[in-house]
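Q: What does the assembly look like in three dimensions?
Context provided by user:
Components: two
Sequences:
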Amino acid sequence: AILDRIEDFYATRGDRPLLGKHVVVTSGPTHEPIDPVRYIANRSSGQQGHAIAAALAGLGARVTLVSGPVTLADPAGVETRHVETARQMAAAVDAALPADIVVCAAAVADWRVAGEADQKIKKDGSGQVPALAFVENPDILATVSKPGARRPPLVVGFAAETEKVVDHARAKLARKGCDWIIANDVGSGPDGGVMGAADNAIHIVTAGGVESWPRLAKTEVATRLARRIAETVKERNI
Amino acid sequence: AILDRIEDFYATRGDRPLLGKHVVVTSGPTHEPIDPVRYIANRSSGQQGHAIAAALAGLGARVTLVSGPVTLADPAGVETRHVETARQMAAAVDAALPADIVVCAAAVADWRVAGEADQKIKKDGSGQVPALAFVENPDILATVSKPGARRPPLVVGFAAETEKVVDHARAKLARKGCDWIIANDVGSGPDGGVMGAADNAIHIVTAGGVESWPRLAKTEVATRLARRIAETVKERNI
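A: Here is the predicted structure of the complete assembly.
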């Protein structure tokens, strides 16, 4: 009976290889205000990031999901924190560290509007149009990837590209200092794009090379990616 | 028995005072693309416009609802046409005319991005930020209100304001040439704004004066507004 229980213990651990690990996942778009009523958004639905958070929790990890504005329910078994802007997302990720693994799946706005207006910008009938100036947002992936004691052992970024998908992903890997870039083509596909769609064709770009997966349901991409992360955690003894 | 049936007929007509009238209602935000993944949006949820469309249909009107991107279900008994941009909304409204009544409740973007990019605008690491130039969108309310044989007898616009609500609404009424402006304060209220909230405090601004309503559920605003429109249709023999 004791042997059975020991076997059970290991069997359970085998199914939950990320037990005791803390993973931070970002998901969804960010919204960057222009004035009290207008904002800049992007077409990320959060489906892929939310599915990854759920899949990692399914493998036993403690998952903190930092989510931009989405219409999805919070995944069960995951601690979800809701943010709107890139700056809020950066702060929430920072507050959630330390982590063993960080997966930056959110489509964070690269730029925000400089000098957000306090009042609605009005059309005055003169035909004059406003000019918007932008400033760069904090780079969450690069910040998390910075070498140092706080750097999570495995940092995974995403690249949403519309052309030269793998080339851009390699450049992004080098520029950000993360371990993997999951690249996908958001401008093509049978339904005219991956954002908001139910499936996704990805390439995992690492220093070692490129692994290209067939087009799969986003939930299947998430399950496989969580398994792939668990393998790496085991191999690298994270 | 025949008398009963005649009475029934008139009773039913009394409950359906907009029978035989065609109403076009616009609702929701518009999304104006910046590039294949980014766009400019606004905080309109479409709740008020959709509720108005449903309430008008409830009074017997044939309603065409032209809706921007919302997460609401299409109202029952209403023909709903889905659009994304201001230009698409303008074309859909034009295609839906002639109408006896037009209610422009959508929060149409005043401006769109000039020269939408075919490819995702990339952050190249240089720290350079893009500049966005804008052009004015078609003005649906002003276009519908233009004098002429095609002008609907009753044109109602909305004004989402954050300050000097009634003053701005009066100016808008004169500028657009519509019959009523329904003005609301989107920047204040107990929950920090009306957009996305369940209730709404409105002012009906006409050439004759201002009628201010107490803060009500958006469904109640819709019911009362539909009744108010039906009264006007009767009074003015539209």
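Follow-up: Chain B has one domain: 16-119+130-235.
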